[in-house]
Amino acid sequence: VIERQNLRRKHAHEMALLKESADHERRSTRSALAEENDRVLRQEISAARDGDEAKLLTLLRDEKNRHASEIEALEKRHQHERDALDARQREMEERLRQEQKLALAAAEKVKTASLMKLSAEHALSSTVQGSKTPPPQAIVKSKTLPFATGRKSDSAIQSNPSDLEKEIRELRRQVAAYKRELEDTAQQLVLAQKQASASGAEARAEVERLWKQDLRRQKALHVTEVEKLEEKTSALTAEFEERHRRIALESAETLEKQLAAAKDGDEKRLLELISEEKAQLRASIVNLKKLHDSERKEWRRLSQAKSRLVESTKFTDGAVITKLQTASKAKQMAESELAGLEERRKLHHEHEAELKRLEAE
């Protein structure tokens, strides 16, 4: 979180510096353009007063070419920045895809390691809780053999043969009962393992289905976004061509009017036409700048949305991995339960050995 805040502050500082630099450049450009326009206007007025038609036409052509060059430069700059934004968007989309692949790979590794064992632990817990078999601690306490309780010592049992036979019969009865319970527990474990295997396969199939469904949804969303971008690009291209054609026609009409006014010697009309053309060019430049600013804001908004989507995906994948790690801990608990069963089996073998020793005596 702290790193993200530092990155945001750094980004805001860089944006402020870029904005300040752009404002300074814009003011300098406007000042230089205003001085150049005043100089050209004075030359045109001087040529019109002197009746120098050739010089006036040359100045008008030069001014028209200069404005056309400015418009072309603005359009090239606009196209260059649009290309840069497109490249940035593609880079962010590629980064999103790579991070999604890494997250999927990490989640798949964790799921492969723990999902099967978690399902086995859950099935085992359900089976044990649903049966009448007491907990492992209760089984161990209830099946402690009488000889091990200290009720009678070795010397007391050996001095009385009837007590020894009774002790042996009791031991045999308890060992037989314990064998039956161990067999029942083993059957329950086998059944639980089968259920766990089936549950694990179903869980893996369900996880794969959900991931594939999410990938299909993201692919459809990406295709929709690409189609929208293509439609918007086509519309902007058509609009640019129409605007360029309209500007060319208006410039040709204005030039014809200026030539006619220059031939007729109508200085006032010529100045009005020149001022009108300059106003139209300034309006066209302002409109282009507004369009450029609006599109740049839109692309910036889309880039920020992509960044938020990347962060959200990271958070979701982190939550999934945390849950799977919790499941891995539950698996360890299940393994400890299985270790308890092994301990009971060892106790059973010890009781059998004790019984054989007593029978031998």
UniProtKB/TrEMBL annotation:
Residues 341-361 are annotated as: Disordered. The keyword Coiled coil applies. The keyword Coiled coil applies. Keywords: Coiled coil. It comes from the Eukaryota. Residues 57-102, 161-232, 271-298 form a coiled coil. This is Uncharacterized protein. It comes from Lotharella globosa.
